[in-house]
Specification:
The protein is α/β, with parallel strands linked by helices. About 35% of the residues lie in helices and about 20% in strands. Strand 4 and strand 5 form a beta hairpin.
């Protein structure tokens, strides 16, 4: 029995944020053969569930919010857990992000909070960035943040208050200014009670300390009594790195960040050409070998 841990955006999802019929079919075949298909995403658990439900994909354990949320069943026992950032740390982070005038989504267990003027302000900053930075592509930026702009469960509110920050699972930060994001990452990395990741060139994701897809994968496989050597991680971006580092083997999408490709065992097709189905079908004979040996 194998466990395939599959990322969503840039991996299982096409650019239009749907799952192809080929990918759905490959998942169901693996499940029928007795393998476990786990979804490991930076999205909120309710968002991931909504996507799977719309595509009639069932019985998948879920690692959400980059590992801060876990949802699965073991022997008919439902396991659901979430790890929030310490409230004082959340307040400190939110205050600093506001000082930098950043777009901020606040992930809670049942919704994602977003100040009502945040999207218009973000698009205005992107327009300004196009004027200030000749290398900046407005269209590329807009394309890269579609997952944030269109995700399920976002609740616009007039302003986010201290009371809203008591149980923050994740902060999603977006900016067209990559230099500013690097500055923010350096600043936040000095806070010991949080961890930082990214799922794209124009975002940062902040969770509680010790949270990652890799640590969550260890927890799930332990509960399922599956050895890590029998796990295969499939992904495309930096928030998948920890998962690639602990899984028995790993598969990078053709569209993956180079840092992911550099440590992957194999490479598959891109997310718009059924790369997941290609990986799941007849694994690993369909794949390009990138490393000389599997990490076990």
């Amino acid at each position: 029995m194998k466990l395939f841990a599959i990322d969503l955006d840039g991996t299982l999802l096409k650019s239009d944020h749907t799952i192809s019929a080929e990918n759905v079919s490959a998942i169901k075949k693996r499940q029928k053969d007795g393998d476990t298909i786990l979804i490991a995403t930076g999205r909120a658990s309710f968002d991931a569930q909504n996507i799977l439900r719309k595509h009639h994909v069932h019985d998948c354990p879920i690692i959400a919010s980059n590992g801060a949320e876990l949802q699965y069943k073991v022997n008919e026992n439902s396991i659901r857990s979430s790890t929030s950032i310490d409230p004082q740390t959340s307040e400190k982070i939110f205050r600093y992000l506001n000082e930098e005038d950043l777009y901020i989504q606040v992930y809670l267990e049942d919704k994602i909070l977003l100040e009502s003027d945040a999207t218009d302000a973000l698009l205005a900053r992107a327009t300004n960035e196009k004027v200030l930075n000749r290398s900046f592509s407005y269209d590329t930026f807009i394309h890269s943040i579609q997952a944030q702009l269109g995700q399920y469960g976002v609740h616009p509110i007039e302003s986010i208050t201290k009371n809203d920050l008591s149980k923050v699972i994740k902060f999603m930060i977006v900016s067209p200014n990559q230099s500013l994001l690097k500055k923010v990452e350096r600043r936040l990395s000095m806070i010991n009670s949080c961890s930082i990741s990214s799922s794209g060139a124009y975002n940062l994701e902040v969770m509680s300390a010790g949270i990652s897809k890799g640590e969550a994968l260890k927890k799930v496989t332990s509960d399922y009594e599956i050895e890590l050597r029998n796990t295969i991680a499939i992904g495309d971006n930096l928030n998948d790195l920890s998962m690639f580092q602990v899984a028995g083997s790993s598969i990078a999408m053709k569209n993956a960040d180079e840092s992911i490709k550099n440590i992957a065992t194999y490479e598959t097709l891109d997310h718009n050409h059924n790369g997941v189905a290609n990986a799941l079908n007849d694994y690993p004979s369909n794949l390009i070998e990138r490393l000389k040996r599997v990490n076990i």
